[in-house]
Amino acid sequence: MPFVRIDALRADGARLDALSRAVHDALIETIGIPPEDRFQVLVGHDGVNSTLRYGNYLGVQRDDDIVYVAITLRAGRTPEQKQALYRRIAELAREYAGTEPRNVFVLLTENDSIDWSLGNGVAQYAALSGTPGSEASDSDASEAAR
Fold it and tell me: 40-96 pLDDT, tens per residue?
């Protein structure tokens, strides 16, 4: 169950929705999360009262179309899966929202099953795996919950 936060500069509701779909579809396609597993925070910054800062670090020429995508998920993905996820998010952000791939900044943060409570004050993933801190993937736990 990834938790996603998307921050975009000068983004209206339609653009935020398109970026939301791009990230969600990429997660489904590349790491196999279930389609109904959608937990996202979408934030548009107006550039005046709230804004985003960016640089042209490592030769990537970013501009005011910058989008930050922060994804927290349980550990267990291969480097190849992560690379595929980054690529697919950038492709779909272009297709769905018109955002240039150079403006899509993605950060993955991994943790363990015990680090999640999906409600009711219970660590559901840890309980499903039977082992606190289990390294089971999001799709494994989703299958076990069914």
Answer: 999 999 888 998 888 899 999 999 999 999 999 999 999 999 999 999 999 999 999
Annotation says 79 is catalytic: no
Residues 6+ away with beta carbon under 8 Å from 81: 30, 31
Residue position matching structure tokens 């998010």: 89
Q: Describe the chain by its helix, strand, coil percentages, rounded to 5.
A: 40, 20, 40
Strand pairing report for 67-74 and 3-9: antiparallel
The CA distance from 80 to 77, in Å, is 8
Whether the CB-CB separation of 69 and 107 falls below 8 Å is answered with yes
Residue type, 90: A
pLDDT beyond 90 at 139: no
Residue 144 scores a pLDDT above 90: no
- The catalytic residue among 2, 79, 101, 132 is 2
